[in-house]
Amino acid sequence: MSIARRGVMLVIASPSGAGKTSISRAVMATDPDIELSVSVTTRPKRPSEVDGVHYHFISVKEFERMRADGELLEWAQVHDNLYATPRARVEQTLAGGRDILFDIDYQGTLQLYEKCRPDMVTVFILPPSIKELRARLERRAEDGPDTIRRRLKNARIEMEHWQEYDHVIINEDLERSVEKVRSILSAARSTGRRLTQMQSFVRDLQNQIDSL
Amino acid sequence: MSIARRGVMLVIASPSGAGKTSISRAVMATDPDIELSVSVTTRPKRPSEVDGVHYHFISVKEFERMRADGELLEWAQVHDNLYATPRARVEQTLAGGRDILFDIDYQGTLQLYEKCRPDMVTVFILPPSIKELRARLERRAEDGPDTIRRRLKNARIEMEHWQEYDHVIINEDLERSVEKVRSILSAARSTGRRLTQMQSFVRDLQNQIDSL
Lengths: 212, 212
Known about the structure:
Two copies of one chain form a homodimer. Chain A is globular, with a radius of gyration of 20 Å. The mean pLDDT of chain A is 94. By secondary structure, chain A is α/β, with parallel strands linked by helices. Chain A has helices at residues 20-30, 60-68, 87-95, 106-116, 130-140, 145-159, 174-189, 198-210, and strands spanning 9-13, 34-36, 40-41, 56-57, 72-78, 81-86, 99-103, 120-126, 167-170. In chain A, the strands form two sheets. In chain A, strands 2-7-1-8-9 form a five-stranded parallel sheet, sandwiched between helices. In chain A, strands 4-3-6-5 form a four-stranded mixed sheet. Chain A is built from eight helices and nine strands. Chains A and B meet through strand 8, helix 5, helix 6, strand 9 and helix 7 of A and strand 8, helix 5, helix 6, strand 9 and helix 7 of B.
């Protein structure tokens, strides 16, 4: 028996290199009821990207119209480009009883809190040590020492915000961290206020007793 | 790596026969970090019971002293007997990073909310149907038809209170219900504000970055 429910907005945030992306991928890979939030962006599409999968690529003019019309749940400017989460798709997904995973930083999280707190469950991932964080950043091999140093400085700032999240996981072992996120999602799904048909289900049980 | 945490008060409530006891036992059996709350009572010890295991058996005078001194988190009178949850043991267990499972009704839950809300996670178990609930009550075979009818009427009242609980589970399949409760407990354990040493852990990570 499954009772209709409103979906969960699952936010996973972490300093760069702490394992957020690996954890998110593993959760998505084994759970058919959650999908990744697709942002809109004004930056040009790269050859490897697919419109509607990696981002919805839109014009600056369209972005500004959406922002002015209150259609964006959160937005950010990174270098010269604009990024945002459009409201309509999120609302439609939640109402349909499916969950959405957000891979955003603390600034995005704080913006979402303002508009969607009751729908959100947030998780902050920390590395077990800076030695380990640095090793992970170096293993990526895509960044030079300057970039790694900058990422570590950013990590320092991002970490400052752990208390703004519902849950905190120290990612020492990927498998265990994924298991913890799965538990957090499972628990959120059984939250009473999300079970949209529970009221009528209980009334029906009570009527069954009355008619005995 | 495990970081010190404050324990969770896990409350499992349900109408009689919905499966609360089976679920609680299964959770306790596989998890070394949670223990059952042991109530004090003024009722006489039965031959099958062990003092300190099933209940702490105390006198009416001692009960009233504890109540007057604010040592009880919740209490109830059932027929002529008094039952209560003493505060000291709960506080000690939580401070030691262990969880406590409470098998209480909605009146006990409401009393605990008044004093311990930040420490609590509450779960309400419902039967999939009244036919199934009745069958379970009849299978117990210990009660006559009158008692079963009374239990069903009580179930009707208890059900009214599902919205006062954090989580609601329809117990159709014991295994799956146990899994859901385990997830709820696991999620509660990673709640940021329960992780008592997280502040110093994060400060330590930041210091590691500063000293690079």
